[in-house]
Amino acid sequence: MEPFRDPALPAGTVGPVGTDPAAEAARAEDSALAAACQAGDLRAYERLYALQGARMKNLARNLLGNPLDAEDAVQDTFLKVQRSIGSFRGQSSFVTWTFRILVNTCHDARRKRVRKKEVANEDETGESLLPELRAPSSHPALRLALERALAELTRHQRDVFLLYEVEGFHHSEIAAMLEITEAASKNTLFQAKKNLRGMLEAPRSGDAAGAR
């Protein structure tokens, strides 16, 4: 069974994205939320957290490997959003802009952790990199194999894979978050899937015999 999601239009979309009433409503709410945050309305930040907090924590957990660091990253992200809200120009959606800050915050945290040599400690404690992958990874052995394979991807491939396959973002959103083109996002996802399949597929009988 194909383990990755189909890059089709989301359910409820009819024709081009701009004609979907649900998408239009989401864009309108996003714009209103951004405007309220720029006006200093604390309730707008609470609304942003209510709408995206769980998703942000899940992504941070997947990028950083443990819930405590993820919680810190999300808190840092909201502080940065508040401090930087004046620089938001609407070139992407407000939510996409917020997730871009989160991804960068997670990468900063990982770099600091590497400098402190904490990565080895995480390996020893056996922390799970991906706690909430979809059904195909529900089997413990497959989950462990996928976690190990993901660790072998480049950071860029891992980011795109997690944002697309785990968090369900579209390539246009991923491109804005990572400051790349949509074509680059699609190509990176293709390479990530190709590499993962190569690492996860069972050895052929001839290969296994030759290894004896």
Radius of gyration (Å): 19 Å
Query: How far apart lie the N and C ends?
Result: 30 Å
**Structural class label:** mainly alpha
Q: Tell me, what is the CATH class of the largest domain?
A: Mainly Alpha
Going by CATH, the homologous superfamily of the largest domain would be: RNA polymerase sigma factor, region 2, helix turn helix motif
Helix content: 55-70%
Largest β sheet strand count, sense and barrel closure? none
Low-confidence stretches: 8-18, 127-132
According to DSSP, the number of beta strands is: 0
CATH topology description of the largest domain: Rna Polymerase Sigma Factor, Chain: A
Strand content: under 5%
In one word, what is the shape?
Answer: globular
**Quaternary structure state of the chains depicted:** single chain
SSE sequence, one letter per element: HHHHHHHHHH
